[in-house]
Specification:
Strands 1, 2, 3, 4, 5 and 6 form a six-stranded parallel sheet that branches. With 193 residues, the protein is an alpha/beta fold. The protein has six helices and six strands. One of its GO terms (molecular function) is oxidoreductase activity. It holds the Pfam family FMN_red.
């Protein structure tokens, strides 16, 4: 069984990230070999990177960083659910990934973005970062277009929104690509040294 961390990238007070993440997980066709666990960056409340050593060294002074390292090490892959803010991804997401290095290496990842224009620019930028972390980011990056009609008077996504259904196919395509990445990793020859 592969354990996938689903990282909610927004920490804003009035964010819609948890709602979109919940919907995204409900849209994924059940698979016997994959389980999903939500990792909410707001709940983690990571301070701005405050470690004295470079993350690539894997030497952590702070207890919070050690806990974050264990959380990320325990996952086989990731789905990053990120909003697009001002044509980029949020600082909270950049900060969270910058805390670590080796813990991310060689793990399959999906970037799912959302915004009034789908969040493609944020996803493209974040893909560069995942490449630097040596994550195996799949080609398909679901970009969810939000619309004013999806929201109620309080600024929350309505419970009965059916506008997300159109994204189920692309999300499942990305998960299938993630499974293919797992297969490639399992077929990779082991270095005997």
């Amino acid at each position: 069984m592969k354990h996938i961390g689903v990282i909610i990238g927004s920490t804003r007070p009035n964010r819609v990230g948890p709602t979109i993440t919940k919907w995204l997980l409900q849209s994924i066709t059940p698979r016997h070999n994959i389980s999903f666990e939500i990792i909410d960056l707001k709940a983690w409340n990571l301070p701005l990177l405050d470690e004295p050593e470079m993350p690539a060294k894997g030497i952590y002074a702070n207890e919070k960083t050690k806990q974050w390292s264990e959380e990320i090490k325990s996952k086989d892959g990731f789905i990053f659910v990120t909003p697009q803010y001002n044509l980029g991804y949020p600082a909270s997401l950049k900060n969270a990934v910058d805390y670590l290095f080796k813990e991310w290496n060689e793990k399959p990842a999906i970037i799912a973005s959302y915004a009034y224009r789908g969040g493609g620019k944020a996803a493209d930028q974040f893909r560069q970062v995942t490449s630097g972390l040596k994550l195996k980011t799949v080609e398909t990056m679901p970009a969810i277009n939000l619309s004013v009609e999806m929201f109620n008077e309080e600024g929350r996504i309505k419970d009965d929104v059916d506008g997300f259904d159109q994204y189920s196919e692309v999300i499942n395509k990305a998960v299938t690509e993630m499974e293919e990445e797992f297969n490639k990793l399992e077929e990779k020859p082991v270095n005997p040294l």
